[in-house]
From TrEMBL:
Provenance organism: Arthrobacter bussei
Superkingdom field: Bacteria
Listed GO biological process terms: tetrahydrobiopterin biosynthetic process
Keyword Lyase: yes
The protein's name in its UniProt record: Putative pterin-4-alpha-carbinolamine dehydratase
Amino acid sequence: MNILSTEQILDAGLDDWRELAQALHARFLTHDFATGVALVSAIGDLAEKAGHHPDVTLSYPHVDVKLMSHDASGVTERDVDLARGISALAGDRGILADPAAPAVVELALDTADVAGIGPFWAALLTGDAGALDGDDVADPTGRVPLLWFQHTDAHDIPRQRFHLDVWLPQDAAEARIAGAVAAGGTVVDDGQAPSFTVLADSDGNRACVCTVLGR
């Protein structure tokens, strides 16, 4: 199956869902545990019929759902079809979504030697030194955030090597950036916005607010 472009996903009209990084995400506001359990059960039945299984997280006030075609490493038509089905299940039960709520945090590490340090971080984070896939250390069980290595020239001058990538819905990023600035942060670089905006705290520690637009 072909990976859909961001434009194709936006054109699909998935009002409850937002694309973050390589997947579709939605949060459904169930408000109580029993309603959440019933929704998760219904999603499970639908996924079994479709032969395509999302990641579902149940908590007391909401249910989070992530959809991605792992064999394609991205969002495909079957994800869009299942997203529509899950939204229909929620709508039939009067359960609303909160499209601004989903967020994904990734760790980025600046290095000139991925081959040298990658296995260490893979072993530390996942327990498997072989969990290095290209420039990424990904835990298939979802215990820790994805770590990706940002290629750089070798250098001896101390500087920040780690930063956070905070993936947000494209229609929520501007407000989040404004909130971070109001809380004492500064915008270091918005030349690539809305793809990513670099922020810093008052100590100079940096993070990127990322969206799927402009990539």
